[in-house]
Amino acid sequence: MSRMAIRYTPEDCARLLEAVRTRQPLIQCLTNAVVTNFTANVLLAVGAAPAMVDIPGEAAEFAPVASGVLVNLGTPAASQRTAMLEAAGAARAAGTPWVLDPVAVGALSVRTAAAQELAGMGPAIIRGNASEILALAGSGAGGRGVDATDSPAAAAGAARQLAGDTGAAVAVSGARDLVFGPGGLRTCLGIDNGDVLLTRVTGGGCALGAVMAAFSAVTSDAVLAAAAATGTYTVAAERAARLASGPGSFAPAFLDELASVTPADIAASLRLAALDPDGLEQAPQPEAAR
Amino acid sequence: MSRMAIRYTPEDCARLLEAVRTRQPLIQCLTNAVVTNFTANVLLAVGAAPAMVDIPGEAAEFAPVASGVLVNLGTPAASQRTAMLEAAGAARAAGTPWVLDPVAVGALSVRTAAAQELAGMGPAIIRGNASEILALAGSGAGGRGVDATDSPAAAAGAARQLAGDTGAAVAVSGARDLVFGPGGLRTCLGIDNGDVLLTRVTGGGCALGAVMAAFSAVTSDAVLAAAAATGTYTVAAERAARLASGPGSFAPAFLDELASVTPADIAASLRLAALDPDGLEQAPQPEAAR
Amino acid sequence: MSRMAIRYTPEDCARLLEAVRTRQPLIQCLTNAVVTNFTANVLLAVGAAPAMVDIPGEAAEFAPVASGVLVNLGTPAASQRTAMLEAAGAARAAGTPWVLDPVAVGALSVRTAAAQELAGMGPAIIRGNASEILALAGSGAGGRGVDATDSPAAAAGAARQLAGDTGAAVAVSGARDLVFGPGGLRTCLGIDNGDVLLTRVTGGGCALGAVMAAFSAVTSDAVLAAAAATGTYTVAAERAARLASGPGSFAPAFLDELASVTPADIAASLRLAALDPDGLEQAPQPEAAR
Questions:
Q1: Is C2 marked within a binding site?
Q2: Mean of the pLDDT values across residues B110-114?
Q3: Which backbone phi and psi does B205 adopt, to 5 degrees?
Q4: What pLDDT is attached to residue A5?
Q5: How far apart are CA A142 and CA A113, in angstroms?
Q6: pLDDT tens digits for chain C (290 residues)?
Q7: pLDDT of A68 above 60
Q8: Rounded to the nearest 10 degrees, how much is the dihedral formed by the CA atoms of C21, C25, C26, C32?
């Protein structure tokens, strides 16, 4: 008899947003040059405090002080890669939860090597699109730059393998976002919120990784942290999309909604489903409904 | 008898926008730290896909995969300069069109040396303001930081010489934007759209270079690519300026308009003129009409 | 008998904004990767011209040409630290006023060493939050990342000591912003404008440092420059807050207001007070009124 998966509800996610707002976790970000500003503003909006400490000599000093750490491989210059290894090592040693986002891994050699090393250093959550998760698990060639060329369901097997190998919760973004539990747990959650405008703003996925780090700072359950972060983020995106005239006006509206969305809004609007991980690769994706 | 210049129409430019929207070219950007986010959002809005791959060891790997490449010298740190040479060399070898933007060249020695080396590596388009084009052609001292201190017409001779020397189309931004054909062609196009608010947002010129790379990915005619990119960009700017209360609200409105402007809008609104390049330096500039 | 402090009025600050608009000072920024874009847009909005020249070999070339320089230690990578020393040295030699912003100094060793060296190189203004000023003066452990954990009044003694030691005006940001005069002058100004939304946008403090550099370019009185920059900035923030629905819509509204606020608006709205520096550490702070 296999172990039972834990049940998660929208109310659990709502409570976690409440905890982020109350505790204002300090999130160290080592992220790419394109999205630093948007990421910091997303963290501030959701109620966390950003600190972009990403140079060698300081990255390891800060990780034990931080409440959570994001390591995002979007523009991994040599000195930043050194700082990433410092931060991940210090975070693991101090028990600070950290999130790995292996941006565009697979096709590009420098970041692929870095991502493989970092994946073995105890991240709480690994977050990527389907192509990135397939590539990091060794099952694919990677996507088209930052764009996925595979569906989240197609990455289910790779995500489960990666979760088992690393002990991390694995979050796969897409029209339906998926979160896979680590280790022997057969947890697989689907989140059916969001809006396509989130894919028309650079850093939409990258900043979600930072929000996952913020939520992982207020719970020891990395699956719940990934799901609640995704739920808060995508519910806010839905609300912003109703106010936007395009991708330009969407971005400020999204920050406004991240700041104003309440735990009660999350409990009422989050479409969270427990899924059978074995059935995913066969099942049709509900993308037409988006 | 000299060769006849090709005729270009607003409808040609409109068709090129249609092609960008359909083919969604993947544009590798090696650009300055100030404008990475805005540049990526501009590319997404116009219908292209950005990929900011700018580190040594990856820049050359990606250029053959990319549909177009932008090399912008705004903040040319040492490792990025190495990556720029890698990317330009790999792009030339693979036949990927690439755009050179020699930001603030002339007064600053490091970037001036880099720009001169890069200009000899086969860019499809060189884009700059009048002072930058004069400086790169060896005829001026450069502008005031990123600001031009010369008029586009004053740079006509330098632009034609630079086009002849490098084989690139040369685009000179200003109140009237100019595009000069390479080689023996005596093409000179003027585009009389745009709004002064575009100069009040940082990266207004830099992101146009990225859009030129996107348009050069869908045609082998670099003059048409530069003109159609400029036309799409400046028509969108005009439309956004009508909705804006200042430079802050202009930026999101501009992204919205880049995403929503149609090829038919371009065909209807683009003020494109074939000019006599010999007459430019004598002719009065229509700046008062702006 | 001690020297009398100079009297400053809102009208003095208004005239300085007028001078910035007229003279459009060129401001060289060596600042952190998170806020480069916002900082450049703030400078453009207020009427100055940004130039992000921050690489070794160019930083010293540009500082004598610039009207003012900002050195902000938010993400001090090794090559940027080299460029900062170059720029500060060249600025001092050329008489170009420069502003030091010792972001998150205290807890982080690399930037703390850099800040101490730079503080001895003749900055016109040192700007920080209370925790940063305490740490730079050697009286505190620094804040929580970029967040102050001390009140401006608590830093009054440290600010006066730092002003005396360095010859710089020292600006301490907070609910009530404070500016301390250098040397033997007992000047202490309080500015009671602003809005809490300014703390919900990343770079709110960092971009103010750039604006101080712009104002210091049009007067030799660093106290007046710091006060007028703070006043213009916080009055614009108040006006923007009335139009905003949250931190996302605040940012573009703030840029619009920076561009449209008039010297007459500053003269009418600025709440500027001459304070007794000895009384500050005992006095209750007027934070409840904000």
A1: no
A2: 97
A3: -80, -40
A4: 56
A5: 13
A6: 344 557 899 999 999 999 999 999 999 999 999 999 999 999 999 999 999 999 999 999 999 999 999 999 999 999 999 999 999 999 999 999 999 999 999 989 999 999 999 999 999 999 999 999 999 998 765 556 556 677 878 899 999 999 999 999 999 999 999 999 997 667 999 999 999 999 999 999 999 999 999 999 999 999 999 999 999 999 999 999 999 999 999 999 999 999 999 999 999 999 999 998 777 765 544 443 33
A7: yes
A8: -80
From the list A35, A104, A246, which residue is nearest B256 (CB)? Answer: A246
CATH number of C10-276: 3.40.1190.20
SS3 A147: strand
Across the interface, whether the CB atoms of B58 and A110 are under 8 A apart is answered yes
Judge: domain A10-271, CATH 3.40.1190.20: yes
Secondary structure (3-state) at C140 = coil
Tokens of C101: 């912003």
Per residue in B132-145, pLDDT (tens digit) is 999 999 876 555 65
Whole-prediction pTM:
0.94
Q: What b/e string do you get for A268-280 counting C-beta neighbours within 10 Å, with b at 16 or more?
A: ebbebeebebeeb
At A190 the three-state DSSP class reads strand
CA–CA gap between residue C247 and residue C251 (Å, rounded) = 7
Report chain A residues whose CB lies below 8 A from the CB of C145: 26, 49-51, 53, 62
The verdict on a CB contact (< 8 Å) between A247 and B44 is yes
In this structure, what token pair is assigned to residue A262? Answer: 């309440």
Structure ipTM: 0.93
Which of C26, C55, C72, C261 has the highest number of chain B CBs within 10 A, making it the mutation to test binding with B?
A: C55
CB spacing of A45 vs C202 below 8 angstroms: no
- For testing the chain B interface, which of A34, A243, A249 should be mutated: the one with the most B CBs within 10 Å? A34
| Domain locations along chain C | 10-276
- In this structure, the dihedral spanned by the alpha carbons of residues A13, A15, A17 and A22, taken in order and rounded to 10 degrees, is -160
Determine phi and psi for A30, rounding to 5 degrees.
Answer: -115, 95
Regarding the domain with residue range B14-275, which homologous superfamily does it belong to in the CATH classification? Ribokinase (3.40.1190.20)
Angle between helices A247-260 and A36-46 (to 10 degrees): 30
Chain A / chain C CB contacts < 8 angstroms: 97
Token pair listed for A80: 């930043």
Q: Give the distance, in angstroms, between the CA of residue C114 and the centroid of all CA atoms in the same chain.
A: 18
Residue whose token pair is 């040192």: C126
